[in-house]
Amino acid sequence: MKYILGAKCVRCGKEYEAVPGLTTCACGGILDIVYDYAAIRRDFSPKDLAACRDNTMWRYRPFLPVEEGSAPPPLRVGWSPLYKADSLARALGLKTLYLKDDGQNPTSSLKDRASALAVVKAREAGADTIACSSTGNAASSLAGNAAAAGLSTYIFVPRRAPKGKVAQLRIFGATVVSVDGSYEDTFELSKAAIDRWGWYNRNAAINPYLSEGKKTVTLEIMEQLGWQVPDYIALSVGDGCTIAGAWKGLKDLYAAGFIDRLPRLISVQAEGCCPINRAIQTGEPWRPMEENTLADSIAVGVPRNPDKALNAIRESDGVAVNVSDGEILDAMRLLGRTQGVFGEPAGVTGTAGVKKALELGLISPESTVVSIVTGNGLKDVESGIRAAGEPLVVPPDMDALLSAFAEAGIAP
Ligand SMILES: *Cc1c(COP(=O)(O)O)cnc(C)c1O
Ligand SMILES: [Zn+2]
């Protein structure tokens, strides 16, 4: 790998060679991939990207930890749209807002970015089977990307995972183990099974390559903004791998001279499950919490990547804000009605956090903010209906329609 110097433990600083099967440090710390930014700067520039026709995350190959000869996996991952969300900005009283709709990835979540990278690394490691535990989206994205590449998958999900996500898993041919327990229990069982059978491990908090895939979301945002740095980037946080990856992408661009400053992160969690934000807000070490929110993708009581996530929020001088389930459901409706974007609960939590941060005066209404929608609403139809309600039911008759309209206060 031309631009990779190695990997370094974020806790103790120990350095490792970047072999494909790399996991955590002997001390238990998570590793970070280290690049030769001077070499990237010499060989690669925004101009090369302007001429690049590869509209996928692989357009950033010099910033990715894959061998030069490795083919990208078949599904199109990345290059999701960045919308200037003027109606929503007006509704929120914010000067400039952009929405990055990562629900438009092949399996409908940002997790595809990590899973695509996992598939390449598994092939480099000579593995034919990949496994992970997940609240749902890491699993469905792994199953889809692996199926396209001809690899088999063993997936562990907590029993509460929404049906849409489980349906994806079954359709993509994964062996699915639905664990009757918390996400923590699910993670531990998957770990024991991976140790026992030697599968390639796609758990993002153990495999240091995965946040490198996730970082492509901020590489794209910056390119789509013409390298003009926003004031804030908002996103929802569960294990913490996504926010850590988003920050790594920004720091990579800064170190390679593509951008001249760094934005601040807005870390958004659910009130009922916010161990990472609580650590930021209190200045104390993080402690486990119950998983008490309908936003299943971020219902993570024991975050698996707290070190990198806390570093990212602190280094960026970030803002931590928690939202209630009611505020998440409100944000689902608001995004749908003002911008035509349908996000799952955790997918819109970042936007709910932008609204809340404005209300609390944590960010200025004059700011430029990018909010990442991390997953599509069709994955969790039940929550969509809960947010927006049931339709009018009428018999096939005009008089009945008229009285139903009158009753509901609808005047066409
Ligand atoms: C996984 C996920 C997140 C949070 O990512 P973490 O790496 O767990 O912090 C947010 N939104 C959606 C839709 C997700 O699937
Ligand atoms: Zn270490």
Folded structure, characterized:
The chain has 412 residues and is an alpha/beta fold. The protein has a domain at 82-107 and 210-388: 3-Layer(aba) Sandwich (Rossmann fold). Helices cover 40% and strands 16% of the residues. It has 16 helices and 13 strands. The strands form 3 sheets. Strands 4-5-13-10-11-12 form a 6-stranded mixed sheet, sandwiched between helices. Helix 9 (216-224) packs across helix 10 and helix 11 (275-282) crosses helix 12 (306-315). The mean pLDDT is 95. Pyridoxal-5'-phosphate (PLP) is lined by residues 109, 111, 137, 236-243, 297-298, 300, 344, 346-347, 374-375. Residues 109, 111, 137, 236-243, 297-298, 300, 344, 346-347, 374-375 line the site of pyridoxal-5'-phosphate.
Order of helices and strands: EEEHHEHEHEHEHEHEHHEHEHHEHHEHH
Helix content: 40-55%
Strand order of the largest sheet: 4-5-13-10-11-12
- N-to-C terminal Cα separation, in Å? 62 Å
CATH topology assignment of one domain: Rossmann fold
CATH architectural label of one domain: 3-Layer(aba) Sandwich
Largest sheet: 6 strands, mixed
List cofactors, ions and other ligands: pyridoxal-5'-phosphate, zinc ion
| Number of helices, where a helix is a run of at least 4 consecutive DSSP H or I residues | 16
- CATH class of one domain equals Alpha Beta
Rg estimate, integer Å: 21 Å
